[in-house]
Amino acid sequence: INAEYMGHFLSGYFFSRSFSFFLTCLMSFNRDEFKAKYTAGELVIVDVRSPGEWQSGHLSKAINIPSGDVMQRLGELPADKATPVYLHCRSGGRAGGVQAELQRMGYQTVVNLGGFSSVQYLDQ
User: Fold this and answer.
1) Residue 103 to residues 26, 30, 89, 106, 121, Cα–Cα distance (Å)
2) N or C: which end of the chain has fewer CB within 10 A?
3) In this structure, are residues 21 and 55 in contact, taking their beta carbons and an 8 Å threshold?
């Protein structure tokens, strides 16, 4: 794993519930495999940026639920709380806050991917 992607998981770690969760994500992450799953539509990726940020550029397969709207729009997330949910924003901060909220609500695997610049490769 390269330093760029380690940074994504480190930003998520500070908002996650346990160090073991962080290690699980770090050890299982594979950029090419992740992109293949994204391309196949197998991932739930939520962009928690504002609608204006979304309009300036976004992942084609992501859904936009601004961080302040997540609780009101839970119906747009998988009903099965065991389904992994991947979050990103501009820099990782808002995604980390949403990550903590979803984990408190019982979502089992919520991953903060960091900022939009870190995930743009998925559409390339």
Assistant:
1) 18, 23, 17, 5, 27
2) C
3) no
Of 94, 40, 86, 81, the C-alpha closest to 62 is: 86
The secondary structure of the chain, three-state, reads: CCHHHHHHHHHHHCCCCCHHHHHHHHHHCCHHHHHHHHHCCCCEEEECCCHHHHHCCCCCCCEECCHHHHHHHHHHCCCCCCCCEEEEECCCHHHHHHHHHHHHCCCCCEEEEEEHHHHHHHHC
Q: Which residue has the tokens 């961080």?
A: 67
What tokens were used for 81?
A: 């709380």
- pTM, rounded to two decimals: 0.78
Can you tell me the distance from the alpha carbon of 16 to that of 112, in angstroms, rounded to the nearest whole number? 9
**Nearest C-alpha neighbor of 86 from the set 50, 51, 47:** 47
Cβ atoms of 85 and 111 within 8 Å: the answer is yes
